[in-house]
Structure formats: structure tokens, C-alpha cells
Write a structure and sequence with these properties.
The complex is a heterotrimer of chains A (about 120), B (about 220) and C (about 375). Chain B is α/β, with parallel strands linked by helices and about 220 residues long. Chain B has seven helices and ten strands. With about 375 residues, chain C is α+β, with helices and mostly antiparallel strands. Chain C is elongated. The chains are: A mainly alpha (about 120), B alpha/beta (about 220), C alpha+beta (about 375).
């Protein structure tokens, strides 16, 4: 008994996977192009925020408003409980994402940029 | 022609359980004939079959296929040779579960990269000749014993090899299916295929399809008719 | 080329059939792996974008800020220091800043009360008026023209008319702000004249900021000097790995991967070994078996990477990393609504791709290697 297969729709597994992965690749390319396009478009908003920071003389973002140092990350107290060292943030969740400048451990001034010690 | 010269096969060489399965075998397999290797269990039939088909390499001795020595061929070339010359039907058929009948039949041809439409048509034609084409899209685990055997034969023939190798092909079949199988063998012989089988089933010898009977015992050939 | 391509498709056919034999398990594996990639990519994309945002936005932060330190703690600074610093060479302008934290018990939110410099900010509130950030307006449910009531630390109730709400586009820097006039600020906190929270300086030559800052440290030894570089470097230093969140993430990711790899490595049973033997017996070369396994590892790992990364991108840049909010917010009531400008560090993405795909493929290949190179006869026995 011969069965005519030529007209039967037999989906090839490799084709399904290749199509799916083609879509995945397209999505990856989309993220790259989206970042490019929106990044350019966001410049205006960034400038607005930068201008406000300049006008109001702000020093920090407002992402971490729960801790003692609230949002002035650069201006934490020197000593506090639950710290690793004087300039570290407390063990709040946000401390795991952003760290303070360690250059201030030594006495005297240390700029955030690399500085040679003054004799 | 396939020629074996002083072929020996030793397993676990150097170990405590070292075992010589084949000892100093000299054999010439004639083309377009049905050759049966017979003998009791442990006589080395399956090992010899594996050596003939290039599934294993001898510990010593030489094997020639159509005048070309294959004993020391690099793996890649040996595989190419095996694929082009031999088709295998294993004792347990060894179809791959999870694939359909059609996919199992096409499997040996995958490495050749032939166009899929042509390949699947060739596979369907083979299944048709063996009267199992209606099962082409079925998973192989749901086939009957006879259907499984025929699919295994179709798989062995997909690359159109001149030689079919079958290891104890009737061991797991009833009488009726065994006769069916032997009819297929007769048909292949009529189409100038060479068949090499192992068997200790008396039915095979009595069927009238066997041209050459090679008797083995304890790893040696003791009779060649 | 066609033959090669067709052959790869055949290997992929076989791979997919093989994966589909244990479909639920393999889909579960893919999902969990994608989840790990999602978490790592979310944190990676978020912190990178945050760094870039801070770098651009905080470029307008004060060049030098001087704080007074008493017994190791930040203290208010006397106005007399302004004169000392004004006479320093290289300093263009010195003035005092008035700002402070205020904890609103009614809403359990921290606000930053500030007096904007009228020279710089055109919308400075007059006495009795207030300008607030969008987060404050939301939490207190006030609109322009309505009154904001604040109970000062001295238990005095302040009634301030809302003059303006700072734009929501600027929430990431302004959401907690409460801008008031100087008289209102001093009365609110009980801060007498002649005292400021800290001082800010502008320097004539930006290249001399560090030099000026050093001099200030010498002139005012009881002060702390913070430059704009400090602020920017703070945001550069992300991923304090010792902290719990990131360590938990990394440990979880590594543990999950070890479990995958172990499962793969211990997964080569007799069945799989036999199958490789069959493939070799019917005409597959060792390289074909290995390529097939590479496809198998690649399908899962690349699929996990693509799914995890794309979802992470959408999560961070279209949903403002909402799932990270509980981590970032802590117990804070105010959290800005913001959209980070998409910034992608190609190197980081490539590293994530590499570490997602390569080890997994290796873990898939290693256990089958020996079976793949063994004679089919031996494998099938």
C-alpha cells in the first residue's frame, strides 16, 4: 500500500528551531538598535535632569531613600554601626549595588580621581 | 570481495580478564551471495561480523574490502567506507526511540547532507517495498516485531550499500516472521546484494537461501561450505 | 555549502527529537537557565545604565562640597568659613547650602528639604510657598495650589502653598525634594543665621579642583571635602560583592549551574551510550556525534541566553526594573518613577553570552566524549 506523502504537511523540526532562533536573534538585534535609538532620543531628557542638578546643586540620585544617608551617598557619616569601614554604606540592600568612594579612608583630602600623595 | 588474513581479536588485552574472541581467521566472502556464520554461543560469530563490517578493528591481521586494506584506515575514512559498503541489521534492531519510522530509516544518510525531499522519498520507497510505508510517521516504539524488523532492514538499505550485514536476525521472531525475513533476503540476493548473517537458527539453513555456510567454534573457522 | 547546511539541519533534526524525548524536563531546564540569565542580565543592565545616567546627570553637581565634621559626624558649618575660602586662590565663588532630611511620620517617608539658590533656580519659592518633587506630591496627594502641611521637628505645623511640582521626567534626581525659602527652612529646623548645612565652591580652572580641595583640607582640618569626582566614582563602584544581595545572586547562579552540569555529566546512562554506538555503527563519524551534541548544548544555552537577556532588557528599560524595586527601595516609601536611558555595554553582554553558552556546551560534551570516540562495537555490547 503506497501512501502519497508529497501532499502531506510534515513540519521539519530543524526549521521550527531555526525560525525560533532567528526570532531570538532578531530580538537581540532589536535590543541593540533600541538602545541606540532611544539613547539618542534620551539625550534631551538627560540634559533637562543635568540642568536641574546644576540649578539645585544636587549631589545624588534619589534611588536610595531609606537609609540614614538617604540619597546623599557621597556624604555619608564617617562612623556607623553595621559598616565594613568608615566610608562604607550600611548593610542596606542598596549598599550591595552602589559603593562609596574608598579614597577617604586616609587622613586629609583624597580626590575621587587618582592623585599622587603630596610630600 | 572481503578478505580476512590471519585476523585475531583479543578483548581486554593485558588485563586479568583478557579474552581472545577470534583466533587466526582466514576468510574470503564472495559477493552477490548469502553467507551465514553459524556456531554455538561464544564461538565468535558476532565479533567476526563486527570485524567484517568495520565496527571494530582486529588486534592483529588484515582485512581487505575490494582490494583496499581497511585495517589501519583512520576512523573517518573507515566510517565513510562502512557507510558506503555496509548496511546493518542488529539482533535487537536498535531503532532509535523518540524518532519516527521515517526518521529512523533516513538516519544513516544524515551525514551525507542529501536534499531532504529526495532522501525522504527514497526512504518512503524502501518502506513501501517492505510494506510498512503506512507507518512512516509513527514512533518506532509502537511497532510490532515484524514491522520493527522491516524498518530495520529499510534503514540498512537507505544508502544502497552492496552488502547487508545481519546479526541473528531471526532470534527474536516467530516462524512466520522468520520466513518473511528469509523471503526478503532471497529478494535482495536476486537484486545482486551480498548478505552476511550470523545465525544458529536451523530455519535459516533449511530455507534454501544460503549460499555459503561458515561454521565457527571457539573463535576459529572449522567448516566452510 | 548546501550539503554542509543540509547536514547541520539533519543534526538539528536529530537533536530536537532527542530533546523532545524528555520534553518537560528540557523545557524546565531552559526556563530555569533563562531565569538565571534574566536575573544576572537585569542587574548588569541596570547598574550599567545607572552608572551612565549618573555620569551625565551628576556632571552638573557642585564641583567642591565642604562639610564640617564634629566628633566624626557631619555637623553644620559656620558662615565664617565662607570668608576663609573666598580668599583662596583659584576659588571663584563660595556659598552656603541649606538642606536637611525630614522624616514625615504621617507617611513614613524621608524628604530632603532644601533651599534652592535663587541665582541658579528661577522658580525659588517665596516664604510660605513650597515646590515639591513628584514623589512627595504623590505620597501626600497634593496638587498645585493646594496646601502642604508639615510638622516640624519642633512640633510646629507648617502650612505651605504648593507652587510647583517638579517634572516627573526628573524624578530620578528630584522625587524626594521639598524646596522652601530660607526663612521657612531656618524656622522649620530651628537653624539660626550664620550657619549652613555645608558649603559649595566653584573653581576658576576645573583642572585645579583637586589642588583647591587639598588646600581646603589644610585650612579647615575639621572639614571633609567632597569633589564631583568623588560623587561620580561612587556610582562607578557598583557591585560590592560582599553584600548579601549580589552574593546571593551569584551563589545561586553558580549553584544552579553546577547542578545542571552534574546532571549532564552523570546523565550518560547505558541508553545514551548505546544510542551513540548505534549512530556510529550506521555511519555517523565521531565528529558528527560531537557536532550533534554541540547543537544540543547550544539549543538550550543559547535559547536561555536569548530569552533571559531580551526579557531583562525589556524589564529594565521598559518597566524600570520593577522587580528590583524591593531591593533598591528597602523600607523607603518614596521611589522615583523613572526610565533609564538604554545603555548597553557590549563587552558585558558578550561576557554573559560566553559564560552562558560555553560552559554548558562543555558540560554536554564532556560525558559523551569517550563514548563518541570508542569503536561502535564496544559501545553497543
Amino acid at each position: 500500500m503506497r501512501r502519497d506523502r508529497s501532499s502531506k504537511n510534515r513540519v521539519r523540526k530543524a526549521n521550527v528551531v531555526l525560525i525560533l532562533y532567528g526570532m531570538g536573534m532578531a530580538a537581540l538585534v532589536w535590543t541593540w538598535s533600541d538602545a541606540l535609538i532611544r539613547g539618542i532620543g534620551a539625550q534631551t531628557d538627560l540634559r533637562v535632569r543635568a540642568d536641574l542638578v546644576h540649578q539645585l546643586e544636587l549631589t545624588d540620585l534619589t534611588l536610595f531613600t531609606e537609609a540614614r544617608y538617604t540619597r546623599h551617598l557621597s556624604q555619608a557619616d564617617l562612623h556607623s554601626a553595621f559598616q565594613d569601614h568608615p566610608m562604607a554604606l550600611d548593610h542596606f540592600p542598596s549598599g550591595s549595588l552602589v559603593m562609596t568612594q574608598r579614597g577617604h579612608l586616609r587622613g586629609g583630602f583624597r580626590d575621587g580621581a587618582e592623585q599622587k600623595e603630596q610630600p | 570481495m572481503i578478505a580476512l588474513d590471519n585476523v585475531t581479536k583479543t578483548f581486554n588485552e593485558g588485563a586479568e580478564n583478557e579474552f581472545q574472541a577470534i583466533c587466526d581467521v582466514n576468510l574470503k566472502i564472495v559477493m552477490n551471495r548469502v553467507t551465514v556464520l553459524r556456531g554455538p554461543s561464544g564461538s565468535g560469530k558476532t565479533t567476526l561480523l563486527g570485524l567484517i563490517g568495520g565496527l571494530a578493528r582486529p588486534s592483529s591481521g588484515r582485512i581487505h574490502i575490494d582490494g583496499q586494506e581497511v585495517t589501519s584506515l583512520p576512523e573517518r575514512f573507515l566510517t565513510e567506507k562502512r557507510r558506503a559498503v555496509f548496511g546493518f541489521v542488529f539482533q535487537n534492531f536498535n531503532l532509535v526511540h523518540g524518532l519516527t519510522v521515517l526518521e529512523n530509516v533516513m538516519l544513516p544518510a544524515y551525514p551525507l547532507g542529501k536534499p531532504r525531499k529526495a532522501l525522504s522519498q527514497a526512504a518512503l520507497d524502501l518502506l513501501d517495498q517492505l510494506h510498512v510505508a503506512h507507518k512512516a510517521d509513527n514512533p518506532v516504539q509502537f511497532l510490532s516485531g515484524g514491522e520493527t524488523q522491516r524498518v530495520a532492514i529499510a534503514r540498512a538499505l537507505i544508502n544502497d550499500p552492496p552488502i547487508l550485514i545481519a546479526d541473528e536476525p531471526t532470534a527474536n521472531l516467530d516462524t512466520a516472521l522468520s520466513h518473511e525475513f528469509l523471503n526478503i533476503i532471497a529478494d535482495l540476493r536476486a537484486r545482486n546484494k551480498t548478505v552476511i548473517m550470523t545465525s544458529h537458527d536451523p530455519l535459516v539453513e533449511q530455507a534454501g537461501v544460503v549460499d555459503v555456510l561458515v561454521t565457527m567454534r571457539d573463535g576459529r573457522i572449522v567448516g566452510n561450505l | 555549502m548546501t550539503i554542509w547546511f543540509e547536514k547541520q539541519k539533519y543534526l538539528l533534526d536529530y537533536t530536537v527529537s532527542s530533546l523532545m524525548r524528555r520534553l518537560a524536563k528540557n523545557i524546565g531546564l531552559l526556563m530555569v537557565y533563562a531565569l538565571i540569565v534574566f536575573i544576572l542580565a537585569t542587574v548588569m543592565l541596570f547598574t550599567h545604565a545607572l552608572r551612565q545616567e549618573a555620569a551625565v546627570v551628576l556632571d552638573g553637581a557642585p564641583e567642591v562640597t565642604v562639610q564640617h565634621i564634629t566628633m566624626g559626624r557631619h555637623d553644620v558649618i559656620p558662615a565664617a568659613h565662607i570668608d576663609k575660602l573666598s580668599n583662596m586662590r583659584g576659588v571663584r565663588n563660595v556659598h552656603g547650602r541649606l538642606w536637611g532630611y525630614f522624616y514625615d511620620t504621617a507617611n513614613r517617608a524621608n524628604y530632603t528639604l532644601m533651599v534652592p539658590s535663587s541665582d541658579r533656580y528661577g522658580q525659588s519659592p517665596a516664604q510660605g510657598e513650597v515646590v515639591v518633587g513628584a514623589g512627595v506630591a504623590r505620597s501626600r496627594n497634593v496638587q498645585v495650589g493646594q496646601y502642604l502641611f508639615l510638622l516640624s521637628p519642633r512640633a510646629k505645623l507648617f502650612k505651605l502653598k504648593l507652587k510647583e511640582i517638579l517634572h516627573t521626567d526628573s524624578e530620578i534626581v528630584t522625587t524626594d525634594l521639598v524646596l522652601v525659602s530660607e526663612p521657612d527652612f531656618r524656622t522649620f529646623f530651628g537653624l539660626p543665621e550664620g550657619i549652613y548645612t555645608d558649603l559649595v565652591l566653584t573653581v576658576r580652572n576645573p583642572k585645579e579642583v583637586a589642588k583647591v580641595a587639598e588646600k581646603i583640607s589644610a585650612i579647615l582640618p575639621d572639614s571633609r571635602v567632597i569633589t564631583r569626582n568623588d560623587i561620580l566614582r561612587t556610582y562607578d563602584s557598583v557591585f560590592d560583592w560582599r553584600e548579601g544581595i549580589l552574593l546571593a545572586l551569584l551563589a545561586g547562579a553558580i549553584l544552579a549551574f553546577v547542578i545542571f552540569a552534574w546532571e549532564k555529566a552523570s546523565g550518560l546512562g547505558a541508553q545514551e551510550r548505546r544510542e551513540i554506538g548505534i549512530l556510529k555503527a550506521i555511519g555517523w563519524e565521531t565528529s558528527d556525534v560531537i557536532k550533534m551534541k554541540v547543537w544540543e548544548g547550544g539549543v538550550i544555552s543559547f535559547g536561555a541566553f536569548t530569552l533571559g537577556y531580551v526579557l531583562a532588557y525589556v524589564h529594565v528599560f521598559y518597566f524600570s526594573a520593577g522587580l528590583l524595586e524591593p531591593v533598591l527601595k528597602g523600607w523607603a516609601v518614596l521611589y522615583p518613577r523613572f526610565e533609564l536611558s538604554p545603555q548597553v555595554d557590549g563587552f558585558q553582554v558578550a561576557a554573559l553570552l560566553f559564560f552562558t553558552v560555553v560552559p554548558y556546551i562543555a558540560a554536554t560534551l564532556v560525558p559523551i566524549w569517550r563514548a563518541a570516540i570508542t569503536d561502535p562495537d564496544a559501545v553497543m555490547r
